[in-house]
């Protein structure tokens, strides 16, 4: 069941924000590439951008469409696949977006929607060894257990907030070999 939202807020904030976000990242898709860096003639120096791999996304209840698009668009633009866990209060938005993704012809497995409760579905995403990055938006009460469950090899980014004070944090680090 979804929670509902006033029409004007849904239209002018959520929908317009999603359209702008998708257009922005669609413009980046063909511009993320490596380049050659001029150095001494005896050396070759170049950069190469590669996808991170499988990205997990855990979205909040209050902006189910906008937050989903904010996590999905950059991940797909950069060539990643996604496992999205919507808030248990608002899964229908993500499931509908999933049906649209299937309808337009995305290959199976590129975007995966996993509805469920945080302690089960969220924990499964945050502890899965095949997930290379996790993007989380929610409360500090929810992020603390996830932070400690996440393997250190996973890059975990969290945007947490209590009482409208938003703070971006990075938990975990990439594995140092």
TrEMBL record:
Keywords: Lipid metabolism, Oxidoreductase. Signal peptide: none annotated. The keyword Oxidoreductase applies. It catalyses: all-trans-retinal + NAD(+) + H2O = all-trans-retinoate + NADH + 2 H(+). Pathway: Cofactor metabolism; retinol metabolism. It comes from Pavo cristatus (Indian peafowl). Its EC number is 1.2.1.36. InterPro entries: Ald_DH/histidinol_DH, Ald_DH_N, Aldehyde_DH_dom. This is retinal dehydrogenase. It is an enzyme of class 1 (oxidoreductase). PANTHER family: ALDEHYDE DEHYDROGENASE-RELATED. Residues 2-147 form the Aldehyde dehydrogenase domain. One of its GO terms (molecular function) is retinal dehydrogenase (NAD+) activity. GO terms for biological process: lipid metabolic process.
